Amino acid sequence: VQLVESGGGLVQAGGSLRLSCAASGNTFSINVMGWYRQAPGKQRELVAEIGSGGGSTNYADSVKGRFTISRDNPKNTMYLQMNSLKPEDTAVYYCNAQTVIPPSLYWGQGTQVTVSS
Fold first, then answer.
1. Alpha-carbon torsion (111, 4, 37, 53), positive or negative
2. In angstroms, rounded to a whole number, what is the distance separating the alpha carbons of residues 108 and 14?
3. Are strands 104-107 and 111-116 parallel, antiparallel or unpaired?
4. For 91-112, what is the mean pLDDT?
5. Which residue, 12, 32, 43, 72, is the most exposed by fewest CB within 10 angstroms?
6. Residue 103: predicted pLDDT
7. pLDDT for 62-76, tens place per residue?
8. CA distance 89 to 37
9. How far apart are CA 20 and CA 78, in angstroms?
10. Residue 58 and residue 48 in contact, taking contact as beta carbons nearer than 8 Å
């Protein structure tokens, strides 16, 4: 499975961005997908994750009510709509996919999100 993120950039506080993660390869085996982020000097952390059908989602407390994760399975694409962005949301955002057969974990290359105050 190959994952390619896009949509990052520079935005002012209070603004919005929409990240996309396009999957290719063994996509039929993808189960849970998620967005993680890593700020300078900090550990990578879960932002949000979504089940295979899109009906089950989980969010970090810090983004609840501001971010929305979704996926379009026919397009093999996952999204992260980020609203009311804060400077503390600045990080490299990574796409993640878990497969069932074989059981593996895949990562994208990351996309930078910078929120200016």
1. positive
2. 26
3. unpaired
4. 96
5. 43
6. 93
7. 999 999 999 999 999
8. 9
9. 6
10. yes
